[in-house]
């Protein structure tokens, strides 16, 4: 039986680890914030006291952590993954991080005789629960194929993007589109609300017309209900847009729409909505138009 060391039990990580357990993998779990493993332990997971312990007993390590600095801490500190990594092991990082960090991790894992895949996901919380995530993966195609069963225990599709760093690049390009689309949806809904339209009727028009989008399907009804329970937080959306901005500067790609979306989500963060769903950006527009959307 393949043993998985799973590190990061947040909104996405906890249901991903649960699906691995349901598919018959042995899973040792660790989270930087204590107390998040209780439900997984009931499903049969074992608890690791550190990333080092999780890595030392695992054939494959899966990480999904919030940002670059947190990833560096989990990998590089004295109780970190690299301190406990044995030769021949594979690390799958599903965090959204900078391509530069993904490449550095790949080199340092390789120096210890392991294989590294940067494999961020799309599908949000619902996809993590249902096991329908899509993985965009950078790294050796052979390593991807060797771990296909691990990926498909958590998701429905694996898209190999190329060498290490390409998975991270794909995720930042993808989330630039997500952030821009979400902001566009909310701005259009604000116009309709201020114009006195029946909002459920307007949302039907959006979903059935040229403005149809995944964001309209995922967020439109949440906005109308004022339901900002987290599928993907506003703070994480802003973090990803900031990473995308740095990447695009390095690549020399002008990104005026990304920068506009980033500024809007910064306004949402400044208003205190960072830990709510990214759709809480609608609250900023509601303040601007003086009424509920």
From TrEMBL:
<dbReference type="InterPro" id="IPR029154">
    <property type="entry name" value="HIBADH-like_NADP-bd"/>
</dbReference>
<dbReference type="InterPro" id="IPR013328">
    <property type="entry name" value="6PGD_dom2"/>
</dbReference>
<dbReference type="InterPro" id="IPR002204">
    <property type="entry name" value="3-OH-isobutyrate_DH-rel_CS"/>
</dbReference>
<feature type="active site">
    <location>
        <position position="171"/>
    </location>
</feature>
<dbReference type="Pfam" id="PF14833">
    <property type="entry name" value="NAD_binding_11"/>
</dbReference>
<keyword id="KW-0560">Oxidoreductase</keyword>
<dbReference type="GO" id="GO:0016054">
    <property type="term" value="P:organic acid catabolic process"/>
</dbReference>
<dbReference type="GO" id="GO:0051287">
    <property type="term" value="F:NAD binding"/>
</dbReference>
<dbReference type="InterPro" id="IPR036291">
    <property type="entry name" value="NAD(P)-bd_dom_sf"/>
</dbReference>
<feature type="domain" description="3-hydroxyisobutyrate dehydrogenase-like NAD-binding">
    <location>
        <begin position="165"/>
        <end position="285"/>
    </location>
</feature>
<dbReference type="InterPro" id="IPR015815">
    <property type="entry name" value="HIBADH-related"/>
</dbReference>
<protein>
    <submittedName>
        <fullName>NAD(P)-dependent oxidoreductase</fullName>
    </submittedName>
</protein>
<dbReference type="GO" id="GO:0050661">
    <property type="term" value="F:NADP binding"/>
</dbReference>
<keyword id="KW-0520">NAD</keyword>
<dbReference type="InterPro" id="IPR008927">
    <property type="entry name" value="6-PGluconate_DH-like_C_sf"/>
</dbReference>
<dbReference type="GO" id="GO:0016491">
    <property type="term" value="F:oxidoreductase activity"/>
</dbReference>
<feature type="domain" description="6-phosphogluconate dehydrogenase NADP-binding">
    <location>
        <begin position="3"/>
        <end position="162"/>
    </location>
</feature>
<dbReference type="InterPro" id="IPR006115">
    <property type="entry name" value="6PGDH_NADP-bd"/>
</dbReference>
<comment type="similarity">
    <text>Belongs to the HIBADH-related family.</text>
</comment>
<dbReference type="Pfam" id="PF03446">
    <property type="entry name" value="NAD_binding_2"/>
</dbReference>
